[in-house]
Write a structure and sequence with these properties.
Elements: E1 2-3, H1 6-15, E2 19-23, H2 27-39, E3 44-49, H3 58-71, E4 76-83, H4 86-95, E5 99-102, H5 109-125, E6 129-134, H6 156-166, E7 170-173, H7 190-200, E8 204-206, H8 214-223, E9 225-230, H9 232-247, H10 253-275
Parallel strand pairs: 1-4, 2-3, 2-9, 3-4, 4-5, 5-6, 6-7, 7-8, 8-9
Length: about 280
């Protein structure tokens, strides 16, 4: 069933478990995510991010994701992640996404709070939930890599004010996490997560989840993380599945698709169990 973020994350916060958000830039990824969630009777969040739109336009993503979410036997939130522009967030709303992240984290604090508060007003009038980001989660490499990530960590005191001013439904935090492949195991600031969770009262979001150690996930969820974003692990699994299919003699795209889907489903199953959301639907 198609739901918004609150219908998934508020029970997760109350129950002390985490829920995975998985980017799905093609139908095979969507089948893997929703199929695994149904098998394990788990709520799930699925969608895309603005940076991924060159791989699949937003309208096309909506065409397959929203009907699949409506037919699903478990709660599915279709979320537009890291929306960098007002216009694209509005497009996501028009297309039927039930949740939006308006990422103004690179702006100054006043601009971030003002723009996100405006987005919340629009979205809440439509029954759509909003995620904001305070501090800034950088990348592990490339143009988005931060020289000193700790300079951009989320400040708990400022987070409390940000939540009050914006009215957001969930807060993405910068606590030592980063997008993409980790070359070295990150050191998450678990104490910071706990303090922010207590001061804001909101479900917290951990971006850059692919590649973290299992114990880090468990601790982060215990400290207040309710939504964990996964893409790199899923993307790499799909590629590996195709490789396995080729090794096994699959000679066509239709022959490779089952290998691709099953490899990605294995990742989703693993994360659902790790986050503690199995059986929570």
């Amino acid at each position: 069933m198609l739901v918004n973020m609150n219908e998934i994350l508020l029970p997760a916060k109350k129950g002390g478990y985490g829920v995975g958000f998985f980017n799905a830039v093609n139908v095979e990824m969507a089948q893997a995510v929703i199929g695994a969630a149904e098998e394990l009777h788990a709520p799930v969040m699925v969608g895309t991010a603005e940076i991924l739109l060159p791989a699949m336009p937003l309208e096309n993503v909506a065409d397959y994701l929203i009907p699949m979410a409506k037919r699903a036997g478990v709660p599915v939130c279709v979320h537009y992640d890291h929306g960098l522009t007002f216009e694209k967030c509005m497009e996501a709303l028009r297309l039927g996404f039930t949740s939006v992240m308006y990422d103004c984290s690179t702006a100054d604090y006043e601009t971030n709070a003002e723009k996100v508060a405006g987005m919340v007003t629009i979205c809440h009038a439509m029954g759509v939930t909003v995620e904001g980001e305070l501090g800034h989660v950088g990348d592990n490499e490339g143009a988005g890599k931060l020289e000193k990530p700790s300079d951009f960590y989320t400040d708990p005191e400022v987070a409390e004010d940000y939540v009050r001013r914006t009215g957001i439904d969930s807060l993405a935090v910068a606590v030592g996490n980063a997008h993409g492949d980790y070359k070295f195991p990150p050191k998450l600031d678990f104490e910071r997560i706990e303090v922010i969770a207590k001061r804001t009262g909101l479900p917290l979001v951990l971006h850059g989840g692919s590649g973290l150690a299992d114990d880090d996930f468990r601790t982060a969820v215990r400290k207040g993380i309710c939504k964990i974003n996964i893409f790199t692990d899923l993307d790499k699994a799909g590629k590996a599945g195709i490789g396995t299919g080729l090794q096994n003699g699959a000679g066509s795209m239709t022959g490779l698709i089952p290998y691709e889907i099953e490899a990605m489903k294995a990742v989703v199953r693993e994360k659902i169990r790790l986050f503690g959301s199995e059986g929570k639907a």
